[in-house]
Amino acid sequence: MNPMAGMKETVNNPIVLLSTASRENAVVIARTLLDDHMVACVNMMEVRSFYYWQGTFSDDVEVLMVIKTMESRKTAVLNKIRELHTYELPEMIVLPVIGGFPPYLAWIEEETRTGPP
Fold it and tell me: What is the mean pLDDT of the chain?
């Protein structure tokens, strides 16, 4: 049986957002997004980030949030992350979901249906 059979194309497709934050800030962001039903799930994992910021090399331990929501919630989620984030320039990258297990994708849509626009 093909788990991808029956996958439908819709205007309101699932998306994944990536954002890094401090551990404490990531918990606040994740909990707020979930409590407001703006997202269905946030996975968090510790990562080590290397980058230059304002000309200075940085080597930081951060938390990477992998955030699952719907395209229709994208702007609201990005705005809420920006509102709650402690970084001057937070990472916020949106990735399209081009496929997946239909029942899981339907769950994402159902979980985000009652959130604010």
Answer: 91
